[in-house]
Amino acid sequence: MGGVNNMFKQKLEQIKQGKLTAEQNIKNFVDKIKSENKEMNIVLHLNERVIEDAKKIDEKIKKGERVGKLVGAGVLIKSCINVKGLICNCGSKTLENYKSGYNASVVQKLLDEDAVILGMVNCDEFACGSTGENSAFGVCKNPKVMSRIPGGSSSGSAAGVAAGFCDFALGSDTGGSVRAPASCCGVVGFKPSYGAVSRYGLIDMCMSFDQIGPLGECVEDCELVFDIIKGKDEKDAVSRDFEDKKKDLKKLKIGVLKINADKEIWRKIRERVEKVCNEKNWKFEDVELEYISLGIQTYYPIVYTEFFSGTRKFDGRKYGFKIEDSCGEEVLRRILGGKEITKAEFAGKYYRRALKAKKIIEKEFENAFKKYDFLILPTFPKLPHKVGEKISVEDIYDYDACTVLANLCEICAISVPCGFVEDKGDKVPVGMQLLGWKGCDSDLLKVGGEFEK
Amino acid sequence: MIDKQKIEKQAKEILDKFAKALEEVEGKSDKEFYVDRNEFEREEGEGEECSDFKKQLLKNAPEHDDDFIIAEKGGWK
């Protein structure tokens, strides 16, 4: 399995064998970031110790000490995942000067495998957004199509990979925030099953849906990183080790999920599905689910409620500024909406109703996965708009229609590049999304590799 | 300058629209709708000490005095 030639793995091998130093690898990224970031606005804070950190790894190699699986790899981290000593501002003025006092568990796992943290990258404010335009520090550029949005909320993570600023990046996905920017920027983004990766050290947006995931040039890169960051962590009560459910990947049945999306996007995806499934002799057919059209209406009331609750700690006493006085419009909308919901008389109408719908959608997917091994649908239902174009709030929420389903059902999902669509003079990347049932992460990654070019 | 009232009204309108769309699910599920996490009960770990955590925490606080974060009186309501 595996779809593309893997340069990253070859590079890691070269570093291990001493043919390339970690310092040189990291220096190449630092030079590129320093020369291009002013225009791209991807990296918010470069790690000042980065060359020093790389040199320490080279010392280990020279001394013949055991080195980790990510020896000398350069990593960019979404600015809502804590890295000790670095500014973690969540793309917000609220935490503009907040310096992390500890490492998130995922960061520690990467460091234990000798990765080097290059810096912190741009994102929608407190991960609230699907476009990347909600960062208080300005939208970052989409390296694959500069006039279009990079997608969000992990905009800098996807753009960082696409720009060649790092070997891979970490993002967080609450309703598609890893997969959507991966689709817009033409890279791979993986959202693990809920609980498969520790969220300790992630500044939460909506704790029932948040999941940290890797973004890379190809599926194999994401697989390598996922194998390192996954697993139960005593610091995150919902993290767990999933039982390894291996499928027979020679005999797969794939459902193509009927959902509203742009005609050209669907054409690209259907072409790819037919090509790969025919080559691999996998069965595929269209599948219709009754309640998936309620994904957005189910997702947002839960997000508003939990986001309101989670942001009560930003009162301007322990760190930063009071959030209501310093945040942007989308963050304020979610806080005020959540505040409204938490009034006793509205809990039943909004929150409990949304939780009921969540259960129904989850059940529908559970039944679908009894019949199909994996489901396929677009990642982004429309072509990403041009930066600065006026879009209504609800139209922006609709960007999440294909991605929130995986978060509502707590299942794993991956976005892989699926070619380009010509639109108004732009060649716009398209992403194809594959969904797998809870705990089928490894198989999903293997199958995802077959669908990428 | 953000128009707080406008945003609040907009949030309420969006929520009302969503709640209306979800009316059809009322009574369709006999399952408990709350998120049950009992199977994920965690065992008490050994914990760890981080020598400079307190120093960093106090550095992040807008106002502090020795080992204490200073907060305004009567502002907790």
Question: What would your notes on this structure say?
Answer:
The complex is a heterodimer of chains A (453) and B (77). Helix content of chain A is 39%, strand content 15%. With 453 residues, chain A is α/β, with parallel strands linked by helices. Chain A has 2 domains: 1-290 and 355-453, Amidase signature (AS) enzymes (Alpha-Beta Complex); 297-346. In chain A, strand 2 (74-78), helix 4 (105-112) and strand 3 form a beta-alpha-beta unit. Chain A is globular, with a radius of gyration of 21 Å. With 77 residues, chain B is mainly α. Chain B contains 2 helices and 2 strands, in the order ααββ. Chain B has helices spanning 4-21, 53-60; strands spanning 64-65, 68-69. In chain B, strands 1-2 form a two-stranded antiparallel ribbon. The two termini of chain B are 26 Å apart. The relative contact order of chain B is 0.05. The interface between A and B is large, with 52 and 41 residues.
Stated plainly, the CATH topology of the largest domain in chain A is called Amidase signature (AS) enzymes
Which blocks of ≥5 consecutive residues of chain A have pLDDT under 50? none
Q: Please state the structural category of chain A.
A: alpha/beta
Multimeric state of these chains? heterodimer
Strand content of chain B: 5-15%
Tally of helical runs of chain A: 15
Query: Reading side by side through the largest sheet of chain B, how are the strands ordered?
Result: 1-2
What string, H for helix and E for strand, traces the elements of chain A in order? HHEHEHEHEHEEHEHEHHHHEHHEEH
CATH class of the largest domain in chain A: Alpha Beta
- The end-to-end span of chain B amounts to 26 Å
| Main beta sheet strand tally, sense and closure of chain A | 11 strands, mixed
Please compute the radius of gyration of chain A using only Cα atoms: 21 Å
The profile of the biggest β sheet of chain B is:
2 strands, antiparallel
Strand share of the residues of chain A?
A: 15-25%
